[in-house]
Amino acid sequence: MTPLRTVPLGIAAAALAATVWLAGTASTSSPVHAEANSAQTLLPGAQVVGMRRLTEAQYRNTIADIFGSDIRVAGRFEPIVRPAHQLIASGARSAAISPSGLEQLDAMGRDIARQVFDEHHRDQFMACQPTDPAAADADCARRTLAPLGRLLFRRPLAEQELALYVRIANEGAAPTKSFAKGLELALGSMLVSPWFLYVVETAEPDPTHPGALRLDGASRAARLSFMLWNSTPNAALLDAAAAGKLNDQAELTAVVHHMVGSPRFEQGLRAFFADMLLFEKFDELAKDPVIYPYFNQDVLQALPEQMLRTITTQLLDGDGDYRELFTTRKTWMNRPLGALYKVPVSKSQGWVPYEFAAGSDRSGLLGLAGFLAMYSHSGRSSPTLRGRAIRELLLCQPVPNPPGNVNFTAVQDTANKAMPTARIRLDAHTTDPVCAGCHKITDPIGLPLERFDGIGAFRASENDAPIDVSGAMDDAAFTGADGLGKAIAASPDATMCVTSRALEYATGRPSENGELVEQLESRFASDGYRLRRLIETVATMPQTYEIPAEDLKAGTTLVATRR
Question: Nearest Cα to 499, choosing from 484, 511, 483?
Answer without folding.
Answer: 511
